Amino acid sequence: MEIETITENQKVTSAKKLKKMFGHVDLRDADLSCPVRDVLAVVSDKWSTLIIMYLGYYPVLRFNGLKKKVYGISNKVLSERLKQLVGDGYLKRTMYPEVPVRVEYELSDFGHSYLEKLIELTEWAQKHKDCVLGNRAKYRNT
Amino acid sequence: MEIETITENQKVTSAKKLKKMFGHVDLRDADLSCPVRDVLAVVSDKWSTLIIMYLGYYPVLRFNGLKKKVYGISNKVLSERLKQLVGDGYLKRTMYPEVPVRVEYELSDFGHSYLEKLIELTEWAQKHKDCVLGNRAKYRNT
DNA sequence: CGGCATCCGAGTAGATACTG
DNA sequence: CAGTATCTACTCGGATGCCG
């Protein structure tokens, strides 16, 4: 017993969903036309994920605040990611034209919706990490 | 009306989950100690995702079969990803010592479990892609 | 057929310094 | 404070050729 058993039925269901998703898409432009890939690009990114998670934890953070939380990120990358995340609508950016300026970042509703998915995924990952690590250990005979 | 509304309650729930997840983790080694990140690494990868999805669609595929399906992937990367996916337990690799050899890849139960998560995420992405693309269009004034 | 070894080019991250 | 600019270093993907 390693993980919960996957029934044949579930497999078929998955296959059907996949068929609906890209069964009709020509293979050749699967990654060109795929907007999903595009959206998923955010998941892919280590820093973006951390930024979003920290903003789910601390509702509002400023640039240097984020920089402290997201340990190890450089100015450049943080600023890039923030711009991208704001541009894609995950974050809301509010600027207060004081002196010195104050800029606050927080999750948008869309960002929160995304965060929920991200948390689900993370929970799954935590539940199964031992499985992966176990497998990895077993194959440590290169 | 852009996306389903996120209630305050949901936000609080997310925050609590996050707290449980890494509230106790020291920031400094968040990405060192984080096994989740590790597991998530697979999601991050464009090719791995495609491989897993195609194997959810076609139950069994061989090297060159995969290469045809996962259009545009190079031998090197395919072989790397396969090795990694097999090593992490997502895929099962069966070799038939015929001449010429035949090697078949299929999803393990763990892989199927992962695929379900992946599909969920993809469905979410599809549902929200317009939102992202819309946002992106709005911010096209750099 | 099912890969692995090698080389090369492009993109990306990181560190540091500087500006409104 | 909230970034931008620049330079370097390194990784990663793609193409090609070879081997059991």
Please provide a written account of the structure:
The structure is a homodimer of 142-residue chains. Chain A has 142 residues and is mainly alpha-helical. Chain A has a domain of 96 residues: Winged helix-like DNA-binding domain superfamily/Winged helix DNA-binding domain (Arc Repressor Mutant, subunit A, Orthogonal Bundle), CATH 1.10.10. Helices cover 64% and strands 10% of the residues of chain A. In chain A, helix 4 crosses helix 7. The longest helix of chain A has 30 residues. Chain A is elongated, with a radius of gyration of 20 Å. At the A-B interface, helix 1, helix 3, helix 4 and helix 7 of A face helix 1, helix 3, helix 4 and helix 7 of B. The first copy, chain A, binds a DNA duplex (20 and 20 nucleotides) through helix 6.
Please describe the topology of this protein.
The structure is a homodimer of 142-residue chains.
Chain A: H1 8-22, H2 30-33, H3 35-44, H4 46-57, E1 61-62, H5 63-69, H6 75-87, E2 91-96, E3 102-107, H7 109-138
Antiparallel strand pairs in A: 1-3, 2-3
Helix pairs in contact in A: 4-7
The first copy, chain A, binds a DNA duplex (20 and 20 nucleotides) through residues 62-64, 72-79, 82, 95, 99-103.
